[in-house]
Amino acid sequence: MNNSLKDWVDITSGVNVRKCMRCGKCSAACPSYDEMEYHPHQFVYMVEKGDIEPLMASESLYRCLTCFACVERCPRNVEPAKVVEAVRLAAVRKQGNNHLIPDQIPAMLDDDMPQQAIVTAFRKYTK
Amino acid sequence: METFTYYPGCTLRTKAKDLDKYARSSAAALGICLEEPDEWQCCGGAYTTAANEPATKLSAVRTLNAAKKLGRPLITVCSACHNVIKQTNYDISRNEAMQTKVKNYLGLEEAYTGETTIYHYLEMLRDVVGFDKLAEKVVNPFNGKKIAAYYGCLLLRPSKAMAMDDPENPTIMEDFIRAVGGTPVIWQQRNECCGGYITMEDKAQAAKRSNIVMKNAEDIGAEMVITACPLCLYNLKKNSDSNLPVHYFTEILAEALGVKEDSGNE
Q: What is the pTM of this model?
């Protein structure tokens, strides 16, 4: 277990992952469930165990839509989206690890694409 | 005439001009003056929940602090701007260390501690104007048209910060629809995600979400969907197979109030 990484994720998320009672409601509520290798409840459980590197290497980090359904519907107020966010930040804040670079943007656009989509994706995917 | 500080945000100046234009013309018709602060920035689009990261909160605090200095409540229209600004305000008001860091970053004389009151435009209609008073000013009622209110995620969640309405059984948009003479339909997908920014890199996932939302609205018999969010509008129109019309809530408000002009949007 990487203790310093776990401490960083715990402090960044502000979440006490040990409050989780494993009901799975976060994953049941998740609109990206089918697209995820690791699901919201697994993020919580694996961060609790300190098993964070597999999460940091997973595309699941970029499937969270930040819709806060898991946060709202958790009966224990664990706030899984904040855990996903902290692990994503641990990944993209590393040098050279941006998930989205500006050169990729023009090919993603069409005439109607709102600026909101671009700034949101940048904030989520890029250092 | 009551005056409020008004934050349009980046998208209302570009791809969502209708959302802005009809917000302004409707406010004028309702006797409300909306004034932009001298300086504002993009809110950032998404709130970064990191408890130890001041940098991503600075742009929202600049707007909040400008509104604080002007001494009037801040009105937002775009769901994303509202979400970011409201969550920033909620978290900074409870985090003294963050207040100090942000004060130092921005060089503020006095720390920003969450003093500004924020209303989404819908909350302004409900809590300042009043839906009953709004109904009295309607000149072109929608004559019972079945309208589906699409909240998406950003207006309601996380509810402890947003505090707009019941996050699972909201009524504010339905009450708005009634005020303009429409009939609200209640549907399961009204507070589920459209796919959001995933449309940038995965059209298939965005299409999957948007089709689930629009199919539900069609199945329930809606004749129109309304939203406050430019990205929801984009996803529901562009990434779904549905032909059901999707409009900004400010557009149907302007239409009901008789102040809708021809669209300036492409």
A: 0.96
